[in-house]
Design brief:
With 131 residues, this protein is of the alpha+beta class. The protein has one domain: Endonuclease, Chain A (3-Layer(aba) Sandwich), CATH 3.40.960. Helices cover 35% and strands 18% of the residues. It has 5 helices and 6 strands. It has helices at 14-25, 75-87, 98-107, 111-115, 119-124, and strands spanning 31-32, 37-41, 47-51, 55-57, 62-66, 93-96. A 4-stranded mixed β-sheet has the order 1-4-5-6. It is globular.
Length: 131
């Protein structure tokens, strides 16, 4: 997707929408949550846990996951990323944590947006989805 595409997806968190705008500004092609990776299965082979990264940057062959969780709660996503690397070693994935997202926004002059990632509201907004 790029800025010229007609209808943007419904993002789970404002940080995802902001990140997509940065990608669009630089003409980086992206897809939002295009693939789900099974991580755990039950005895019958049914998927019991899966992971769907936020973005896929096709020209870089890179998945990007954003998190605004408090650092002590990001252990959950880190565990999932480790499991991803075990099961899918050829899949490139990068995790951007809340601080890295704020720094990126500040770097590109998005001060108001960066302020949205401060405090407990930012930590809970949109994080209820089990991606």
């Amino acid at each position: 997707m790029t800025a010229s595409d007609s209808k943007p997806p419904k993002f789970a968190h404002p940080a995802e929408e902001i990140f997509s705008r940065i990608l669009d500004f630089y003409g980086i092609k992206w897809e939002y949550e295009p693939r789900t990776f099974p991580l755990e299965w039950d005895e019958q082979g049914n998927v019991t846990e899966a992971f769907r990264p936020d973005f896929y940057l096709s020209e870089q062959n890179l998945y990007v996951e954003l998190t605004t969780l408090r650092p002590r709660l990001s252990t959950y996503k880190n565990r999932r990323l480790r499991r991803m690397k075990e099961l899918y070693p050829d899949v490139n994935i990068k995790l951007f944590k809340r601080r890295e997202m704020r720094d990126l926004m500040v770097k590109y002059g998005l001060m108001t947006e960066a302020q949205q990632l401060s405090g407990t509201d930012a930590q809970s907004n949109g994080t209820a989805s089990n991606k």
